[in-house]
Design a protein that fits this description.
The complex is a heterodimer of chains A (310) and B (240).
Chain A: E1 2-11, E2 14-24, E3 29-33, H1 40-47, E4 55-60, E5 63-64, H2 69-75, E6 76-79, H3 91-101, H4 108-117, H5 132-144, E7 150-154, H6 162-176, E8 180-185, H7 188-194, E9 197-202, E10 205-211, H8 212-218, E11 224-230, H9 234-242, E12 247-253, E13 260-266, H10 273-282, E14 286-293, H11 297-306
Parallel strand pairs in A: 3-8, 3-9, 6-7, 7-8
Antiparallel strand pairs in A: 1-2, 1-4, 4-5, 9-10, 11-13, 11-14, 12-13
Chain B: H1 2-23, H2 25-49, H3 55-73, H4 75-83, H5 85-90, H6 96-115, H7 119-128, H8 133-160, H9 164-180, H10 193-199, H11 201-209, H12 215-237
Helix pairs in contact in B: 1-6, 2-3, 3-8, 3-9, 3-11, 4-8, 6-8, 6-12, 8-9, 8-11, 8-12, 11-12
The chains are: A alpha/beta (310), B mainly alpha (240).
Chain lengths: 310, 240
Amino acid sequence: MISVNGVTKYYGNFCAVNNISFTIRKGEITGLLGPNGAGKTTTLRMLTCYLRPSAGKITLGDYLVDENPLEVKRMIGYLPESAPLYADMLVYDYLVYVGKIHAIQGDARIREIAAVCGITEIMHKNISELSKGYRQRVGLAHAMIHDPDILILDEPTSGLDPNQIIEIRTLIKEIGKKKTVILSTHILSEVEATCDRVIIIDRGTLVADSRMADITSGHNKKARLMVRVKGADYDALSSALKALPGAGSVTRADDPDGLTAAVVASETTDDLRPAAYAAVKDRGWTLYELSREHETLEHVFRRLTKGGLQ
Amino acid sequence: MKFRETLNEAKIIARKEILSYLTTPIGYIVITVFLIVTGWFFFSTFFLYGQAELRGFFELLPLVLAFVVPAITMRLFAEEKHSGAYETLMTLPISMEGVILGKILAGTGFVLVMCAPTLLYAVSAAMVGSLDIGPIMGGYLGTALLALAFSAIGVFASSITKNQIVAFMIGLAMCLFISLIDKFLFFVPSSIVGLFEYLGADYHFGNISRGIIDSRDILYFLSLAVLAFIGTSKMLEDRS
């Protein structure tokens, strides 16, 4: 559905996006992740024909972005960051105006989309009077009014309260069943909760592109084990743990409760927990905690986007 | 076919811009100032000379519009660029030509609405003597052409910057330049006086408002508008 091929974008001498390639299939919700200034918004702006890439090719559906911008724009619904809308217009007037550009006649579709986005009761308010959450919803209505095949959202939940965030996420998931959605964010839990797929960009380069399920389980094979016991000093615990088959380095972990704690890095994909439990039991220590740390998206993100700084 | 589509798009944009002139105070302020200024100039000489004509009003109009039109058009692109709404507009399926034409027509339409009450001057003049209708009709045709050309220039100025004040200043400078250029003929070598005279808006507006409708004068205003239109699309085309 979306294919980005070797796309580079320079602002003067500054390279904002450097040779990025990825493809997104129909019916996927893709999260575009990255630290501030990584090039997320620039990438989305190139997808939506707002910026022209310095090099590379972008195809949406059957159309090349450079050659058929109007067809591409008809196919997408785009919500720019912080939903910049005309402040002096009424919500209703604004939706009528956008509808007309999309050649939508009549009120029915406007009422429908207003109901979907939960803005029916503010239709006769001035856009400048709206709270950030409502403005964001009007922006979503603006993006979805023509029922686009591809929905591109730049930080759709920024500035919303927790209830609104959940509502918007539910909405995005609902849309994602039939449409292709690509959203940028730096809220990792949002991606974990909504996306099928994640693309991570760091300083203009693509550092990860995989399915959500793979990213956590794939890096999980060498999980770390947290062991917390009473009745042993750190050296005893450490040597006991090192003796486990498949155990790697052992490091001391903080423990404020007078317990002794250690983190074991695993060298294998096997679960070390049964062996660790047996070792603790044999020595007569009291086991307070034995847990396997799942590598979350947060770990992956921090590892991939911090690495370059060193 | 393409042209009809563009015209249709322009209608949507123009409608939206006119609506926003009517819902914000700036439109009413500009109309008020315009009517006070032209009203004062018109009636101050009207009773003095006691002649049933609007020549004084039309003579001054290019200069007044050179101030007023950039004030109306300054927000058309600059405000959007400032607020970021420009990005939402540019990612909607609408052609650049349609957008620019719509904004120019909105400016022109607003100027015509603003000038409509000045028809009362003509009515006042008609009450004191027999009014020659030719120059009046010519004057208003000239006003419409002038409004179109100045609006196009104002839209161009607005497309250059995201600061409305800067857009106003640039538009004002350009409109003043073409309104006043024929006042400086004195400094120009006599061989090119004709050229400079031709470049001035006053000269062409003067012809039309005397009731002489010459295709050259009409062409002059239309080519100004087309030039400004092309300039605007060149300014906005750059998507780097």
